[in-house]
Amino acid sequence: MKLYLARHGQTALNREQRFQGSLDEPLDETGFAQALLLEERLPADISRIVSSPLLRARQTAESVAGARGLPVHVVEAFRERHYGVFEGLNRQELETQHGELWRRGVVRLWDEAPPGGETMREVRIRVEQGLHRLQREQEGEVVLLVAHGFVARMVHFLLHGLAEADIHQCVMLGNAEFGVYELPPGNEVPQTAPQPTPRAGGAA
Predict the structure, then answer these.
(1) How far is the C-alpha of 167 from the C-alpha of 66, rounded, in Å?
(2) Which residues of the chain fall below pLDDT 70?
(3) Sheet holding 178-182, edge to edge
(4) The pTM is what?
(5) For this structure, is 80 an active site residue?
(6) Cα gap 82→21, rounded to integer Å
(7) Strands (E), 72-153
(8) Please, what are the domains in the chain?
(9) Phi, psi angle pair for 194, to nearest 5°
(10) What is the pLDDT of residues 141-188, one digit of tens each?
(11) Is 16 one of the annotated active-site residues of the chain?
(12) Which of 39, 80, 87, 177 is catalytic?
């Protein structure tokens, strides 16, 4: 299976550099323009479009799907990480309101999270399950998956079989950028894969 992994277009929270996570924000004007450009850059052979359930990802996926006459299949496993009490806040607000947690780098720890949020390990489990599902159901297809910044980083981590300490070295896709992966047949997430190729589309 060939996988094109794209991040959604820009939202107002991206523009303001705030933690977005599970907040269900729509694309802003720039984000809709980025989604249109993404559709133009993607190859013609995409046969299946999969999206996170969050609105910003669905709107981006629908921009591509509408131009190609394809449906969008929503998969819950690829929703963005929930950042708990950090959501909606920028760095200055985090340092003021949750200084100890922020200084300790709680969002970068595998088994801790901001209160009310998901740990990285919890996200790993559901994203890995989502990849297994794609492999089972979309073998032989060319799939576009529209998801989120941290989810894209986790996919890269899983497909390259990286050590846990190396996850933050993975490239963070900008808004409406995409990478390309080859997933072999079978039920196991591969341990190696080609490096994704980000395409310009506007940074977060």
Answers:
(1) 34
(2) 186-204
(3) 72-74, 48-51, 142-147, 2-7, 178-182
(4) 0.90
(5) yes
(6) 5
(7) 72-74, 142-147
(8) 2-182 (3.40.50.1240)
(9) -60, 150
(10) 999 999 999 999 999 999 999 999 999 988 899 999 999 998 877 655
(11) no
(12) 80
